[in-house]
Amino acid sequence: MKANPYTANSPPFSSPIFLLSTPNFTPNHANGRIIKASLSPSSSSDEKKSKIEIRVCTNRTCRRQGSLEIFQVLSGIAPPHVSVISCGCLGRCGAGPNVVVLPEGAFLGHCGTPIKAANLMSLVSGIDSSEVESSTENCLKALALRKRAEDETSLGNFSITYNLLSQGYICHADTLMAMDQFEAAEESYSIALELEPSIRRSRSFKARIARLQEKVFPSNLG
Fold it and tell me: Structural domains in the chain?
């Protein structure tokens, strides 16, 4: 029987557990883990991204309009180069919930649904316009899986919890791939594998890893 993942030594949604950036994707079958390796500095685009800050007004009026939920959604789907913080009144209270994106200083009002929040995150993260819709869908799916996992944990169904969390990390990694956040994506894929080792045999998971390797080590292919 699996232990409660929220009380284990390496709980989900904390620091990454393993990296899987070996060019040949060589698994260690003895323990079900992927051999640890580091991304080469030239292959990672994470550090090339400029830092972005999203401020969400949580003052009284915006809070009544749902800004706390929007803050939670944005915090839950933010890639490494985007920070999400709460702030005081941004003005235009009748147009809330209000957010501002720095350093551009772009103001967005009526950001009152998870879909609008996820769309915003996709856009500020530099995702191609053709992939915004799928990225938004993946973001919201990952959050929904996390909520279901929390519900199953409260019922003591830890095996189901691990499976749901693994699916959630895969969705999150797919979104990070669209953002060209390859190092963060590999970390999420690795956590998904640690939570549910059986996905190693999945064709779709193998295809995802192959795409990641193509992005990270293009010179080693073909």
Answer: 48-126 (3.40.30.10), 130-220 (1.25.40)
- Based on its alpha-carbon atoms, the radius of gyration of the chain, rounded to whole angstroms, reads 18
Q: Is residue 92 classed as helix, strand or coil in its secondary structure? A: coil
Between CA 121 and CA 74 the distance in angstroms is: 7
Distance between CA atoms of 182 and 200, rounded to whole angstroms?
19
Are 116 and 110 contacting, i.e. CB atoms less than 8 angstroms apart? yes
Cα 33 to Cα 166: distance, rounded to the nearest angstrom: 14
SS3 content of the chain, % helix, strand, coil (to 5): 50, 10, 35
Residue pair 60/66 in contact (Cβ under 8 Å)? The answer is: no
Question: pLDDT by residue for the chain (222 residues), tens digit each?
Answer: 566 554 544 444 433 333 333 333 333 333 333 323 333 333 344 444 578 999 999 999 999 999 999 999 999 888 888 999 999 999 999 899 999 999 989 999 999 999 999 999 888 887 877 788 888 888 889 889 988 999 999 999 999 999 999 999 999 899 888 888 898 899 999 999 999 999 999 999 999 999 999 988 775 545
- For 2-9, the CB contacts below 8 A with 24+ separation are 2/158, 2/159, 2/161, 2/162, 3/158, 4/153, 4/158, 4/161, 5/149, 5/153, 5/158, 5/161, 5/162, 5/165, 5/195, 6/150, 6/153
Q: How far apart are CA 212 and CA 93, in angstroms?
A: 43
- 103 vs 158: CA distance, rounded Å: 42
Beta strands in 162-204 (DSSP E): none
